[in-house]
Structure formats: structure tokens, C-alpha cells
Design goal:
It comes from Corethrella appendiculata. The chain has helices at about 5-10, 25-35, 55-65, 100-105, 105-110, 115-120, and strands spanning about 15, 45, 70-75, 95-100, 130-135, 145-150, 155-160, 165-170, 180, 195, 205-210, 220-225, 230-235, 240, 250-260, 265, 280. By secondary structure, the chain is an alpha+beta fold. It has one domain: Sandwich (Jelly Rolls).
Length: about 290
């Protein structure tokens, strides 16, 4: 059914499947996402930004602990210096992650449905598991830029098997910050890693192993998609999204699948499965039933 997906991912580093989610699934996920802020912390709020670094150890710890929990990350422009909100709570979050696929019933249902398993089967996964998931808000006016990156920077496997599943729950347009890709860039290796700091004395628990590469602006191709599409993202393709400058939000749900049968998951990755909570398997031995 989707044999062309492998060809397209091999050529471009990404592929789009239109109308992957039903209208009911879109509405249910959107409703759940719009209510996530109600469980967000009212103190010790943590900013998520790909354009600013922070050396604060408590931020790193909060991020690390989100591997097995649902944690809440605020937009840089949403918080005053004292941690109080600049905007309404429903517009303050940048993202929620990274265990929505196991700890929230609405997102678990989407993540483990048979259509996802079918795609994994078509892509040749033998024992796929979901490593992490996120709800990304991209709220109007405040939704921050996501700088150019590769998912393998954060979820490195050898050989590279990680595939991102990215679902816009609202139309993703040029104005509200749709994804942009450098076609074919997945063939150029892993440019940068984001890892657990081997220096155990440092207050920086997470570090990049090298400076960010500079990618030519003209290389990026915007990929606007309608709500309910599924964008498949190779772990090494360079992609980004610009700040939402419009008056329309761009909510999206995303998760990352790795093949636990055919690759080694790096022990230096920021996100590590725990003995009592291993990555949840979609199926074994390419049997989707």
C-alpha cells in the first residue's frame, strides 16, 4: 500500500501521507492537547527553547526525568523573570513530553493504532518501539522557532533506524510555522549529538558534542500539510520550523520509533529506557496482528 514511502524517504529523507488520521481522531487529540495546560505546574516552570541554552541543573534534571513522565515546557516569551505567566495559560506551553504515548490514553491510542504498525511493517521494522512522544503547540504569535536539526542528534542508533511520525492537528502553513526540510540531507551522516555529559562534576547534565552546523537558507524546502496528515521523518534529515507569526495555532503530535531488533541504541543519548519502563513495543517479528 505504501511501498513508495521507502523510495521517497530514501531519496528526500521524509514522506507525507495525507489524511492519515480521521476527523474524530484529530478532534479528540486536539481537545486533549488544548487541555494539557490544566495539569502544568504553577511554580518552577521550565522553558523549552532550541535557540537559547541554559546551564541550570534543575532544568536538565526536569528534562531528563521527562523520559518516563509527562512534563511541561513553556515558551521563552511566556514567562516573566519571576516565573509568572505573561500570557494566558492555554497559550503558554511550547511542548509537553515525552511519555504521552504511554501515559495519556488519547495519545496512546493514536501511537499504537494499526495504521502506525502497518507503516512500520512497510518500512521493514522487525521489533519497533516508541522511544518518546511530544505534543507541540506552536501557539499564535508566541510559538517559538525550532532551529535546524536532525532527530539523530537526540535519538542516535547504529545503524540509523529512528523514524519520526509527525501529525499536524491543525493545518501547518508557511505563516504558522510548517516543517521545512533540506531534501537528501539524511545521506550526510550525523552532524551533531546531544548527550549526557560524561563530566559528572559539571552542573550541565546535557551537552552538545560540537557547535551547531550552519545550513544555507536557500536549501530549505517548506512542506505545508493539512490537519490529519502523517509526515515520516528520517532521523538524519535536516529540518526546522520558523516562529509562528500568524494568529492561528499549529498544534501537532509527534513520536519517534526505533527498531529494537536491528540496531544499538546509544547509551549516551539523553533519553534512556528504565528497567521498569522499557520502550513500548508496537509488534514483534513484523506481525501486526
Amino acid at each position: 500500500m505504501h511501498n513508495h514511502l521507502i523510495d521517497q524517504i530514501n531519496i528526500d529523507g521524509f514522506a507525507v501521507i495525507d489524511d492519515f488520521l480521521t476527523k474524530d481522531e484529530i478532534n479528540e487529540a486536539l481537545e486533549a492537547g488544548k487541555n494539557l495546560h490544566k495539569d502544568a505546574p504553577t511554580t518552577a516552570r521550565t522553558i523549552f527553547s532550541t535557540t537559547k541554552s541554559s546551564n541550570r541543573q534543575n532544568k536538565d534534571e526536569y528534562f531528563l526525568e521527562s523520559a518516563q513522565k509527562i512534563h511541561y515546557f513553556f515558551e521563552d516569551g511566556a514567562l516573566k523573570d519571576d516565573g509568572e505567566l505573561n500570557v494566558k495559560p492555554e497559550f503558554a506551553l511550547n511542548k509537553v513530553g515525552h511519555a504521552l504515548h504511554t501515559d495519556h490514553p488519547v495519545f496512546e491510542k493514536i501511537s499504537f493504532n494499526n495504521r502506525v504498525k502497518e507503516i512500520c511493517w512497510q518500512l521493514g521494522f522487525n521489533r519497533p518501539a516508541i522511544a518518546q512522544s511530544m505534543y507541540i503547540f506552536k501557539n499564535p504569535g508566541i510559538g517559538g522557532e525550532v532551529i535546524a536539526h536532525q532527530d539523530a542528534t537526540y535519538l542516535h542508533t547504529d545503524p540509523p533506524t529512528t523514524i519520526g511520525f509527525w501529525f499536524p492537528l491543525e493545518d501547518a502553513t508557511l505563516e504558522n510555522g510548517c516543517l521545512q526540510f533540506i531534501k537528501g540531507s539524511h545521506k550526510s551522516g550525523v552532524h551533531r549529538r546531544y548527550i549526557r555529559n560524561p563530566d559528572k562534576i559539571s552542573s550541565e547534565l546535557l551537552i552538545h558534542d560540537r557547535p551547531a552546523p550552519l545550513y544555507p537558507e536557500s536549501n530549505f524546502v517548506p512542506v505545508p500539510v493539512s490537519a490529519g496528515a502523517c509526515v515520516l521523518i528520517h532521523s538524519q534529515v535536516v529540518h526546522r520550523s520558523e516562529r509562528n507569526k500568524s494568529d492561528k495555532s499549529r498544534h501537532a503530535y509527534t513520536f519517534h520509533v526505533i527498531d529494537t531488533d536491528d540496531c544499538v541504541y546509544s547509551e549516551s543519548n539523553w533519553l534512556q529506557p528504565q528497567p521498569d519502563k522499557p520502550f513500548k513495543i508496537l509488534y514483534e517479528n513484523r506481525n501486526v496482528n
